[in-house]
Amino acid sequence: MGRIRKTTPLWIIGFAYFPPESERTEKLSPNYKGGKMAAVKRIKLGSQGLEVSAQGLGCMGMSAFYGPDKPDSDMIALIHHAINSGVTFFDTSDVYGPRTNEILLGKAFKEGVREKVELATKFGSVFEEGKRGYRGDPAYVRAACEASLKRLEVDCIDLYYQHRVDTTVPIEATVGEMKKLVEEGKIKYIGLSEASAATIRRAHAVHPITAVQLEWSLWSRDVEEEIIPTCRELGIGIVVYSPLGRGFFASGPKLLDSLDDGDFRKMQPRFQGENWDYNKTLFERVSEIANRKGCTPSQLALAWVHHQGDDVCPIPGTTKIENFNQNIGALSVKLTPEEMSELEAIASIDAVKGDRYMAGMSTFKGADTPPLSSWKSE
């Protein structure tokens, strides 16, 4: 499938400093040699008025799923560095930790910092009796929001997502309660994550959806078939998690060797056996183009996401300042239509073997809910 692009002006507000060559772990784009300053732009996310930095920071890996928790002091230093660099859009969830990631951000956003950022969190992914589940019933939505407000130590959440769709509860009931939270001033904007196109439409009819969060990268392109067009038809912003293929484009074939035993990527089909052996060749081909461009493979992969349009905000995660700086470098990588086509030819929708998640994990495929007529109010 050809790329889906949308272009309108962007607004420049911040700057990021890049350290000298001696302090870098990987080569940056030529635009950054000598410690030049790079603009971090602002974009309008959705059509309800939310404005965010053109690149955000996903905070999950600081507290969950990617190995042991990292020291709070180091993560707070990274968060403050991001803000000083012009990245002000932060993404967390009550399930990260669980709960400890929200507490971490609450600590980081004290003493006047809160006013400088756009804060997004999520509800709906739960672990009960050792099993993963999903909840979207109104009572749970409200209780989860109240708990997140306390952990984050804020009065209002800028963007509140349903993390995964509860397929037992009509989406109208879930979003109806979120709408009440907006009216009460507890959240400003509503989002969905990994929702089907039909669910997005039904939710948007109850209350405007500001953003849909989804996985989109040279490693995962199936959302281009239906989800992206639906969001654009409805004026919904697109927030992209795992734009680097869960670290694949940052580390390449050596990624698996660097993962801790508790890292959940080791359990994902794409990282296992014959799938992994096959998928590693994609990194080699992307690396060839990156070398030609004078940037790293991760910057090239992230630049590809940025070039999808100004309604798209990737939120790459990291726990290291040097990697954060490198990710910001992707904003300087300019791709021609021919280069975009070349990347999309080698990273077609079916170019990667293996599912994104292990069996039983919820994704937008099949994330539909019962009709509202089936729901009995609580």
Automatic annotation (TrEMBL):
GO CC annotations, alphabetized: cytoplasm
Matches recorded under SUPFAM superfamilies: NAD(P)-linked oxidoreductase
Gene3D superfamilies, alphabetized: NADP-dependent oxidoreductase domain
Protein name: NADP-dependent oxidoreductase domain-containing protein
Highest classification ranks of the organism: Eukaryota, Viridiplantae, Streptophyta, Embryophyta, Tracheophyta
Species: Linum tenue
Residue span, NADP-dependent oxidoreductase domain: 59-346
Assigned keywords, A-Z: NADP, Oxidoreductase
Record-level Gene Ontology MF annotations: oxidoreductase activity
